[in-house]
Amino acid sequence: MRSTAGTVEQALVAPRYLAGGGDPGWVTVPLHRAAGWSYGHDPLMPRVILTSPDQLTQLRIDPDPDDPWWTIRHARNADKPAWTATFDARTPAEIIAAFTDALTDPSGPADTGADPYAPLREAKWDTPRHLYGLASPDGITCVEHLGTAGRDLWTVETAVIENPAIWRAYFTGSTPAHLITSVTRSLADQTPVARDPSRIPGFARDRMSVSTHRVPAADIATALERRVSTLTARHTAPPAAAVTRHVPPPRRTR
After folding, report:
1. Rounded distance, CA 210 to CA 192, Å?
2. Looking at residues 112-129, what average pLDDT do you find?
3. Domain chopping of the chain, boundaries
């Protein structure tokens, strides 16, 4: 970023699903510092492995050009089935972070009966590009639920018709619905995401809106720290005090 007298130039990109990968640390740093995920990757290998405190969930970033870069796997636990979520390299970090933030929320899902399509319908994603699913109003991103119960799959694909897919994400059907909903909610969010102006993707440039402005360099430097502090507070906040209801003494009868 170009710096002038304590300020830097920052770009705001919309729609967010075309903004490119961004900073992976937006996902990995809070997982480690706020949610207590441990890292055990080999520093001599170009990959990152983070494991949840209960050892049931693992995030793996593996820069393989032929496979998804981001893989999150959750092991089978008691009566809950295993599940897997994958994201390609150009998936915006903010969208992956929506998934991991929901995954590590100590309060649990707000709605166990979440419908991943609901945020998209509210945002007018009502024009399917294929036979199934919902597509964004610009037709670039499509979310589909394929298959049958027990063998189903949720997919997200961002592509411009004339070119191969820019990025894809897959969620096995056993992935908790509220986690998939966190992704669709982020997809439907029209708030632009911040990027370094020199690193705005060249693909689909004519399909995105980019505005630049100058912001204090300190704001850029502390953005991740503020995010970590906010997510850490979720784990350290005291439980809500139980409401004590006044119960009148039983009536005495003769």
Report:
1. 9
2. 87
3. 3-236
